[in-house]
Amino acid sequence: MDASASMLTDDAPGPRIDAAKAAANGLIEGLPDEAVLGLVTYGTSTDDAPESQAAGCQDVTTLAEPVELGSDGHRVALLAEVGGLEPRGYTPIAESLRQAAGLLPEGDAAIIVVSDGEDACGDPPCEAAAELKEQNPGLRISTVGFKTATPELACIARTTGGLFVTADDADQLASRVLAARDTDQNAAALTPTGLGGIDVGAHYNDISAAHDDFPGQGDGVTEGDYTVITYVDCDYVFDGDGVVVEVRPHDGRTVDGLTVGDSLDRATEIYGDEVDAPAEAANSSGAEEAMKGTSNVRYFVASREAGTAWKVGTDGDTITDIVLCECLPPSASAGSDTNGGGAEWMAPVAGSGYFESTSYRQDSRMVGQTEIMVYTPFQEDGTLSSEFEEIGPGNDELWVCQRWRGDFYSCYQDEFPDAKSYFCSTNGETAWCATPRGGRYYARHNNIRVIEGRDTSLRMIDPLPVWVSVKGTGATYYFQGRADIDRPDATPVYLSQGEGALWAPTGQSAFDTSGEFWTGYHAPAHGTTPPLRPLELDGVVFLEMD
């Protein structure tokens, strides 16, 4: 169970941790006495400051070893442990998987991971999951992405034969934690991201590498610009780039229990009101015609984070088809009820201060539909202005700083030269560096050594903001200049916990500023390397020296 600092975000509605606690309690209370259940958490013993990363990446706690719920006081003890969780620190998912697996016996066993983001420690969880599966073939790991559809969580489940589901709010989280427990029952059900480990947004090459018996592209049926490939009682619709845009099971059933033959009222009961049909269907060449016996097509939100919708065909009031598509209208996507980049826009992390309207904003202007903001946190002598807040110092480790761009420095902990912080300032005795927490907060390092010369290890093409926000999703990305995978066609520039990375195509800027919105180029920060996908930005923040 994730108890990292991001679980304090107030968007569930209410704090995410409260929704997670309620979901965990529902599982604990709903299982029979003979069920064997334990509880592991991470992020409770350290804060999330950069200097706490080393300790935070080992911050995994076993709150209860797995024993029968009916044994003396175990169920009550589990509920008490869940109730006492206080999120604070990092997200060491890989290490938590190892510790949880170590508590389980050989043979049939399961882990359910509830998290709102990616591993924050550079330790690839999918690789850890694969190793654990090899050690115990009976182990399955299911993952629940709360307010996130990160490929990292999907990979963990896919690699171990588990189930990956997303949840956009507290009610969905409660039901989908229960769904993650019933892996066998739900293996053939549509999840908000895909079916049977094949997700909307997956590339053909990755699918065929994971499924040796997946048909060749030439075996598919052409529908206009799209190709439909049938595999295990399901039609997968690929666009011209070889990416899945629709999943059409032959006998539709969702992980939440909606099935062909149900009434339309049942869909509304589970998923809420219908949403508008997209301006252009994911498969405009005849997707509706492919829904046999259908007189009307309705759309419901599947996952705001993944941008997916349930496309439900009906005959009268009876559901005849259920299709998952990458076609959620922008008006229904994550963060759609936030302002489109205006002065009152707030970041999704509670109190983070990413784009707050405050006295320390030097400048704000609209360029097209993207808001450009400039902060001036550092004074002429290199110190942090009193209008901003310090984080730390968390320890006395030596940090090495070197001039980087203009008057900004790059700094790194002496033991970890590859994990640099950028957009730092120093007065020669102390250094302050921008952090993922946003424009208000800066990490302070008291024990520093300033070295001569200029850091030329990371050369980027302007413009180079420190933080950017994605239109319609609420996702915020922080300049980090690295990722856990290499691409031949791009350099990683910005990371967002649970959302992947924004990349700079080789020889180009990380942003196209020529359109109505600034555009970044998105791809996972871990695992696979699908084609870069453009994302429109509604806000960017630059730093300037006083």
UniProtKB/TrEMBL annotation:
InterPro entries recorded: VWF_A, vWFA_dom_sf
Domain VWFA, chain residue ranges per copy: 1-181
Designated name of the protein: VWA domain-containing protein
UniProt organism field: Dietzia aerolata
Source organism phylogeny: Bacteria, Bacillati, Actinomycetota, Actinomycetes, Mycobacteriales
